[in-house]
Design goal:
Rossmann fold; 195 residues; single chain; alpha/beta; 7 helices; six-stranded parallel beta sheet; 6 strands
Length: 195
């Protein structure tokens, strides 16, 4: 792995997806926080760019996907200004902050759809993206497919991604492997970048 051509993407790891109080809650997301935090810290130490790709909904809900709108309205309007703190757009404290981090707000599932992510990655000379975050069948998978379509090499960290059930998680990881993504766990990734 060429570290100078690699970037870590942390997708949708926000309270609105991590909290059981949210209608957007993903059962497996909270348990991935320590592994994600370790990957983030290691990448920062080695100068690998870290991109936090997140969702923020307008208070009136005008940018909420039509497939989520009813749940969003009935469930406290997560990820929007004025919503309760426990379902907000904030990320876990374990992730910390660095002035070198990149922050991208995405309007839909893929980190690449209608964002400046591809432009910034190319300007940085990145050819390999490492995907972490939630949800695997939606945001991770669409980001993976778009990255491959844009000719990036893709690695998905299995224990840094999550789905509503283990069955959904395994099925989607298998599908991404079948189209050419590398699927490894965070321990293997950390070992690789420490060499």
């Amino acid at each position: 792995m060429n570290l100078k051509q690699t970037a870590l993407l942390v997708i949708d790891m926000q309270k609105g997806f991590l909290s059981p109080a949210s209608p957007l809650y993903i059962d497996g997301a909270q348990v991935t926080v320590p592994a994600c935090a370790a990957a983030i810290a290691a990448c920062r130490e080695r100068g690998i760019p870290v991109f936090f790709v997140t969702r923020i909904y307008y208070a009136d809900g005008s940018n909420v996907e039509h497939t989520r709108r009813d749940a969003w309205l009935k469930g406290g309007r997560p990820l929007s200004p004025g919503c309760p703190e426990e379902i907000s757009a904030e990320m876990p404290e374990e992730f910390g902050n660095s002035p070198m981090d990149y922050r991208i707000i995405k309007p839909r599932y893929s980190a690449f759809f209608a964002t400046e992510l591809d432009l910034i990655l190319r300007r940085l000379g990145v050819r390999h993206v490492v995907l972490t975050g939630t949800t695997t069948p939606n945001c991770i998978r669409t980001s993976c497919y778009d990255a491959i379509s844009l000719d990036y090499e893709v690695t998905v960290l299995s224990d840094c991604t999550s789905s509503k059930t283990a069955e959904i998680q395994e099925s989607n990881l298998r599908d991404m492997a079948n189209i050419g993504a590398e699927i490894i766990d965070s321990a293997a990734f950390l070992k690789r970048i420490s060499v």
